[in-house]
UniProtKB/TrEMBL annotation, chain A:
Gene source species: candidate division WOR-3 bacterium
Swiss-Prot/TrEMBL keywords: Membrane, Transmembrane, Transmembrane helix
UniProt protein name: Uncharacterized protein
Residues that span the membrane, as ranges: 7-24, 36-55, 67-85, 140-159, 171-188
UniProtKB/TrEMBL annotation, chain B:
Lineage of the species this protein comes from: Bacteria, Bacteria division WOR-3
Identification of the protein by name: Uncharacterized protein
Keywords of this entry: Membrane, Transmembrane, Transmembrane helix
The keyword Membrane belongs to this UniProt entry's keyword annotation: yes
Organism of this sequence: candidate division WOR-3 bacterium
Top-level taxon of the source organism: Bacteria
Sequence intervals crossing the membrane: 14-32, 262-282
Record has Transmembrane as a keyword: yes
Amino acid sequence: MNFSLDPWVWISALLSLAIFSFLYKDNPFYKFAEHIFVGAANGYAVTFYWHNILVPSLFDPLFRQGKLLYIISLIIGVLYFTRFIPKISWLVRIPIGITIGYYTGASIPAGIQANIIKQIQGTILTKENFLSWHAGNMGIVWSLILFLGVLCTLSYFYFSREHKGVLKITSRIGIVFIMIGFGAAFGYTVMARVSLLIGRLQFLLGPWLGIIK
Amino acid sequence: MKIVDLMLKIDRRIIYLILAIVVILPLIIPSAQHVRVMAPVQKLYTAVDTIHPDKALMIDFDYDPQTQPELEPMALAILRHAFKKKIKILGLSLYVQPLGLAKAALDQVTGEINALAKTNSDSVIYGRDYVFLGWQPPPIVPILGMGESITNVYKKDFYGNQTDTLPLMKQIKNYNNVELLISISSGDPPLWWVSYAQNRFGLRVGVGCTAVSASDYYPYLQTGQFSGLMVGMKGAAEYEELVEKDLNIHKRRKASEALPSLTYAHLVMIVFIIIGNIGYFIKRRQK
């Protein structure tokens, strides 16, 4: 073993072990590491916002370069803090309204185009879609399964009629597709979490303990 | 306690212990595992490989320490590929947390290349071959703004240089000069790029994502909205394989090294799921 001599590696490794200790049970070491993480993350974000956003994008232009129009942004931003003063807390609706208005306007047309229209186009049985699977003649089969899956899954969420007859059959098939979707999502989640564990163990066994290169 | 009860009530600490053993052992005693490259990763590799010399590759580094093990190997592999092919790179982050990791990845790969370079043209030089634009909130604003002018959105780069003075930025004005964007991300940014940059400006988008996001993102690959997709550590290992085989770049393959541990961990999970289900069905029959 070739232990690291870098104190930062030691701090990082000990904090990692403190977090892992939660797997046994909740304990003061875990709490200590958790609080350090929250504090450090917030401190980093606040200082970064201050030095990289507020100062160069608002305070410098307003107070050093004399661009008075920026005072509008400052006032709108300050209105967020009126939430702490009950008598004028209603003023917070102004910046919230501006933010929601901007994002809604920007995201509705873009979201409909990218997430609905294009996705519907992807389920239509066309030659382009068959080829998109890169699976030769099997592309037709995959497209057909996708087409049926979408229709059956949608029929499962159709609640305006009792699920009887044809609707019962399609909704049952829909459940199968939904379950396969959940299974895939769960499998991928396991893969992601194990990957994170591997990453941390690579650090502990490598830079800290020097067991692996 | 009956064996059925044992099957249903395995102490979670035993599961964690077994999982730790099967993950640690393959790391200490490495074994080669064949990496089979799948179509989504091959597609992404080809998209990078065929970038026109006059155009740039934009990389959105949006991973933080929580997702670094999955996404950092992707970033390193793509950077090695792009710099080897002399593709111009613009780097950026849509969140503040990834900046340090993005800089570290760029420093590592440019350091590797410059250590072997013999001439000025072999070297990778900041401002000429790549630029790290840094971060500009909120995310939608720079995504939309760069369609008009990149230097107007990022007036200064990550290091504080005026972007309009950098030689590369005189060639790369907006998305018309960017052939492909790769979003290496653990969250929604790939969808933002598709919604705002692709829909409005026609930017091609490739994605490297965590495994958690994979089932959400495959539909976008099928519709052609993504020009390639790398999923989790497995996807990163596939890209590493392509970079090593095709470009003869032999560097540490962190994702590929982790694959045996990943495989054994999955097998353990499968075994425990089967044990739990057998126990459940036996118990139900007994009732």
